[in-house]
Amino acid sequence: MKDLPVVIEDGQEIELEGWIIHKRISGKLAFLDLRVGPGVVQLVASKKELPAEAWQNIKKVTLESSVKIGGIGKVDSRAPTGAEIHLKDFEIIHLSEEFPITPKEHGIAFLMEHRHLWLRSRKQRAYLVIRNELEQSIHDFFYKNGFIRIDSPILTPAACEGTSTLFETDYFGEKAYLSQSGQLYLEPAAAAFRKVYCFGPTFRAEKSKTRRHLMEFWMVEPEVAFMKFEELIKLAEEFLSYIIQRVLEKAAIALEVIERDTTILEKTTPPFPRITYTEAIETLKNKGFPIEWGDDIGGDEETALSQETDKPLIITHYPKKVKAFYMQPNPDNPEEVLAMDVIAPEGYGEIIGGSERINDLDLLKKRIEEENLPREAFEWYLDIRKFGSFPHSGFGLGIERTVAWITGVKHVRETIPYPRMLYKIYP
RNA sequence: UCCUGGGUAGCUCAACUAGGUAGAGCGGUCGGCUGUUAACCGAUUGGUUGGGGGUUCGAGUCCCCCCCCAGGAGCCA
């Protein structure tokens, strides 16, 4: 079975530390698989070529024991990763107790209980290597394009989009909430640096229990001063295309390990197909969904729409009542806002949500009142519209959903090292 | 929160339309095997059937309550 390889040169003298993940022993010849880092290498041991003590160690070593080995590298097509190490020495650092996770089948409840150990498994390592490549590609994209990274706070005094779904905590006698978006803190920073982004965990206390939701998830959010709605859509297209292509290139082996068919991913190049919310509602009605203009578009509806295309689908011009208070109204229709969502193909749903922001002070005050939001908490935010106000736009991309799409994994819980799910915070 | 399905050995499951003191594979352990790939062959180990109460001569199986898990919905990234 394919795994991430360790690069081995033919004839090279090698000393390595690692963990034994598999052992096949036959009388006088043994094969062991050693996990060194993300990668794995096969060890070959012949009884007559080893010190007696080393052979005894090989016989008694248990799965997931930590060991130190010495040997000679050999390129050999019979080895699972194309190369192997012929052992000259084998030392046990720690003899592992019986490891709960075996190469055979396990249920998801058992695996989630043992998430801290499950991380060592072949596919889980591949998923997290892919996540790492995605995160790096995001930073590289923004760095190359002159963005400044702004680390927004996690403890916040007020809601970005209403308080009902926030985790509340005590802040020296005051109420504080775990951030559900860095956006409000990004907008002031855009006035300082013009192009900014934040990258960090966000928290939603929604009691949702689906394959697309976590209580704690990571989001990257760019915000750009003087950027209008059309340019925002272009930014989203270029950004998403860049990060997908970069991951396909840099994480090619990890994608092979998980046997991901990347045909559709390769098609992620600008421009993306685009429909308005109103057109989406018409399409859904024709498909038989019981939906009316003004309703939000749910998971099944998103999947139905994304089936029309192999590329991410952009939906624009949503009704203002289903979107956040800070979104700029459509000049051609005040009931709509200049908002856009990007729906991933293959049923992975919304991965980007963004908009042009309101830059007029009076309009923003009015919208805060209409949504019954606590005005005091937003005074600092309103300041942006008092001191050199400027048109600006931004979006947020969900890391876990994007990794889920790239890897083809069904549930986002496997795209993050330690998922936080409804009523589940262990390990 | 709601709907549906489920909790039996360390793990994955079986024990039937009909209540009769639980069984297999994997893992572990011991032995065998010089090119294995989730190796193979033989032996062996393993259980208060999620918890509590009830019906019954007798409950894994039937009834009630509780706990936990999974899948889905709403909401969202």
Order of helices and strands: EEEHEEHHHEEEEHEEHHHEHHEEEEHHEH
Fill in the CATH topology of the largest domain.
Answer: BirA Bifunctional Protein, domain 2
Amino- and carboxy-terminal Cα gap = 29 Å
In CATH's first tier, which class of the largest domain applies? Alpha Beta
Helix content: 25-40%
Q: Tell me how many strands there are.
A: 17
Uncertain runs: none
Quickly count the helices: 13
Description of the structure:
- This protein is α+β, with helices and mostly antiparallel strands and 427 residues long.
- The protein folds into two domains: 13-94, OB fold (Dihydrolipoamide Acetyltransferase, E2P) (Beta Barrel), CATH 2.40.50; 115-415, Bira Bifunctional Protein, Domain 2 (BirA Bifunctional Protein, domain 2), CATH 3.30.930.
- It has helices at residues 52-60, 108-113, 115-118, 122-144, 183-193, 229-250, 252-257, 263-266, 277-286, 299-306, 361-370, 379-383, 399-407, and strands at 13-26, 29-35, 40-46, 66-75, 83-94, 148-149, 155-156, 168-171, 174-178, 195-203, 216-225, 274-276, 313-319, 329-330, 333-344, 349-356, 392-398.
- Strands 6, 10, 11, 12, 13, 14, 15, 16 and 17 form a nine-stranded mixed beta sheet that branches. Strands 1-2-3-5-4 form a five-stranded mixed beta barrel.
- A hairpin with a 4-residue loop joins strand 2 and strand 3 (40-46).
- Helix 4 packs across helix 6 (229-250).
- The mean pLDDT is 92.
- The chain binds one RNA strand of 77 nucleotides through residues 1, 22, 24-31, 33, 42, 44, 46-48, 62, 76, 78-80, 98-110, 112, 165, 181, 202, 204, 206-214, 217-219, 296, 298-300, 341, 349-353, 396-402, 412.
